[in-house]
Each structure stands twice: as C-alpha cells, then as structure tokens.
Design a protein that fits this description.
It is built from 7 helices and 5 strands; from the N terminus they run H-H-H-H-E-E-E-H-E-E-H-H. A 5-stranded antiparallel beta sheet has the order 1-2-3-5-4.
C-alpha cells in the first residue's frame, strides 16, 4: 500500500514515524484474564500459587504472601505482592499477613534497585473498582520501579510502554537476585 493509497482510503496520513505495536495489551483491555466474578475459583491471584514459578511469573514465595511480576506492567520490573488468602481489602489482612506484605515489599524494592538501579518507586493498592483495581476481589500491592525520565513521550503521547526484556527473563533475574 502506498502513501497515496493510505491517504485516499482514509486509513491514515503518512507521517514518517515508525510504529511500535503492543498487541499483547488487547488481552488486558478486553479483560481476558479478569475473573468473571469475585470468587476465588475465578481469581488469577489464587491460581498462580499452584503454578510453577516461571509459568506464574512468581519471583518469591513467603508463608502468607508471594511476589509476582505484573502480566501487564507499567514499567520493567513491575511487581505485585499478594496474600495467598483470597481477600479484597487491606483491612481484612491479619497482622501477620500485613507484616509479610510489608517485608516482601521492602525486599522487592531492594532487589529491583540492586538489579536495575531504579531511582524510585510507586507503591500502592487500588482498593475497589472505583479506585482503579483491575482485579478488586484479591488484594495486591503494586511495586513499580521508576527512573529519571521514564515518563517520556512513549506512554504520554504514544500511549505505549516499552519493556527491554521478556517477562520470563525479568522474573529469572529478580528471583536469582532476591535479597
């Protein structure tokens, strides 16, 4: 298809820009991995602990909680800390669960800093659908590494996130370096 054909067909105007396609994001947009309901039988965070670490993208397992890579990361090394127990709200954690979630979060930060030199982190829990939780039925805390200048034109204007390696490679690196 020529530039002239593109213009005539109304498909778009040539602008001499290369395109970065991220078709894997459509699964997230369509909600393909979201539970149909809030039950533990439909929950991916309840299913992951039964998988082997590489398949489930699990970086570290604790007694009451585990750490895994986000399947749809905001940045390279985007981790989530989840209790094994299927609970929706942070106020439902036991003291022991809350302590282990905090300990795993600190260890995740140390590990990501040691392996990638992250300059900072966004850490948080979106509680409920109205607060932006993609999977509101199972508590999970995001640990998102940040670097100077990482919010350049790609996510803001291009609405694209670039990741320098496959998730499996990132999982292997972080699991091997866990501190």
């Amino acid at each position: 298809m020529t530039d002239e054909t593109l213009h005539q067909d109304g498909i778009g105007h040539p602008d001499d820009l290369d395109r970065l396609w991220t078709p894997h994001r459509m699964a997230y947009i369509r909600g393909e991995n979201k539970p149909a309901d809030g039950s533990s039988g439909e929950c991916p965070f309840c299913r992951v602990p039964g998988l082997d670490d590489a398949e489930g993208l699990v970086v570290r397992r604790g007694e009451l909680a585990f750490v895994l890579l986000n399947l749809y990361p905001y940045a390279p090394g985007h981790l989530m800390v989840c209790p094994y127990r299927h609970i929706a709200d942070y106020t439902e954690t036991t003291d022991e669960e809350a302590a282990e979630i905090a300990d795993l979060t600190r260890a995740a930060m140390r590990t990501v800093r040691a392996t990638s030199g992250a300059g900072g982190f966004n850490i948080g829990m979106n509680q409920g659908h109205v607060a932006g939780a993609g999977i509101a039925a199972h508590l999970h805390q995001h640990v998102v590494p940040r670097w100077p200048g990482d919010q350049n034109f790609m996510p803001i204007i291009g609405r694209t996130k670039t990741l320098p390696e496959l998730l499996g490679q990132t999982r292997e690196l972080l699991a091997a370096a866990w501190v």
